[in-house]
Amino acid sequence: MRSSLQRRAPTLLRTISRRSQYEAAIISNAPRPAAAATRPAAVAPQKRWHSSVNADEISHFNALASTWWDPHGSSRALHLMNPLRHDFINTCRSTSLSSSTTVTPEPNSQPTAGQQQQHQAPKLRYLDVGCGGGIFAESAARLPSTHSVTAIDAAPVIIQVARQHASKDPLLAEPTKLRYINTTIENLASTLQSSPEGSKFDVVTLFEVIEHVDQPANFLSHLSNHVKPGGWLVLSTIARTWTSWFTTNFMAEDVLGIVPKGTHDWNKYINDDELRGYFSKFADEQGWDLSSLMVQGVVYVPGLGWKEVQGSEKVGNYFLGVQKKA
Ligand SMILES: C[S@@+](CC[C@H](N)C(=O)[O-])C[C@H]1O[C@@H](n2cnc3c(N)ncnc32)[C@H](O)[C@@H]1O
């Protein structure tokens, strides 16, 4: 009987040979080769041929919805990753705040101008795209420094689960604190047209989503419209390497079972160089400050959870943050 590795190796070799095509698609806004959905999308986009939504991905995630909040269930790896997401956002944002705001004050000392500025800084408006059941969205909404979280996902069943879970926490009951919308990034601008919150956000997050969308460059260009001048786009995804296939497809899905089978399509992984290429190419058009771009590799260590490992962005999972010019 053939092992799973033997069964999947020919597919991997075929997909590696298509690699240059995928790279071109990421940078150029062109659709990924052979990526067009053949079934209707769960959330019908206004123009299907421009949709980032892949119907198979959405039905896969809808099927996982009921166990989303089980810390030992299908989304275990996402629950464990959540604290690192906040750390990374803080790291990104601290580079654009006055350095004095990060200094621990002496007891009884007067606050510095920088600390006063941070204290008085307006609270943050977050947009969490592909929010799933709300692991990050809920945690962000609970922060004292948060004004509001708008969280969107293309999977309708997941959005129901997210709303239901949030309704159990009175802290999140305030209607403006956390709102879930079942929509696509392509339709978000029109959905938010008359929203008092506006359609631009201080922090736009995209955690473990870009490797599930069709036409990632198109997706990012829609997303960029929702980042305020001076705001941050923060994402996490997976590099397309032999090692990531072994760890995220073979080990995590087939052997250890910490991620449900079929969650990841190795072809859709994106390397940090490809994202750097995207942001360089569209820096002027979309207003990205390339000097702010930050990447941090993270590794899942069984029994210990996710750990930051310098350089591992070239191998597997990583965070990327980039700021818009003010
Ligand atoms: C791996 S889950 C990550 C969920 C969440 N960001 C987290 O990390 O906890 C990927 C999510 O992206 C959503 N998704 C996939 N394609 C999407 C698209 N084109 N637009 C919006 N959401 C999408 C899925 O429905 C799913 O909830």
UniProtKB/TrEMBL annotation:
Subcellular localization(s) per the UniProt record: Mitochondrion inner membrane
Residue ranges the record marks as coiled coil: none
Chief subcellular location: mitochondrion
Residues where S-adenosyl-L-methionine binds: R85, G130, D153, F207
Biased composition (Polar residues): 105-114
Reactions accelerated catalytically: a 3,4-dihydroxy-5-(all-trans-polyprenyl)benzoate + S-adenosyl-L-methionine = a 4-hydroxy-3-methoxy-5-(all-trans-polyprenyl)benzoate + S-adenosyl-L-homocysteine + H(+); a 3-demethylubiquinol + S-adenosyl-L-methionine = a ubiquinol + S-adenosyl-L-homocysteine + H(+); a 3-demethylubiquinone + S-adenosyl-L-methionine = a ubiquinone + S-adenosyl-L-homocysteine
GO biological-process terms attached to the record: methylation
Keywords linked to the UniProt accession: Magnesium, Membrane, Metal-binding, Methyltransferase, Mitochondrion, Mitochondrion inner membrane, S-adenosyl-L-methionine, Transferase, Ubiquinone biosynthesis
CDD domains noted in UniProt: AdoMet_MTases
Functional pathway: Cofactor biosynthesis; ubiquinone biosynthesis
Top-level taxonomic group: Eukaryota
Top-level EC class as recorded in UniProt: transferase
Job description of the protein: O-methyltransferase required for two non-consecutive steps during ubiquinone biosynthesis. Catalyzes the 2 O-methylation of 3,4-dihydroxy-5-(all-trans-polyprenyl)benzoic acid into 4-hydroxy-3-methoxy-5-(all-trans-polyprenyl)benzoic acid. Also catalyzes the last step of ubiquinone biosynthesis by mediating methylation of 3-demethylubiquinone into ubiquinone. Also able to mediate the methylation of 3-demethylubiquinol into ubiquinol.
Family: Belongs to the class I-like SAM-binding methyltransferase superfamily. UbiG/COQ3 family.
Binding partners and assembly: Component of a multi-subunit COQ enzyme complex, composed of at least COQ3, COQ4, COQ5, COQ6, COQ7 and COQ9.
Official protein name in the record: Ubiquinone biosynthesis O-methyltransferase, mitochondrial
Organism: Rhypophila decipiens
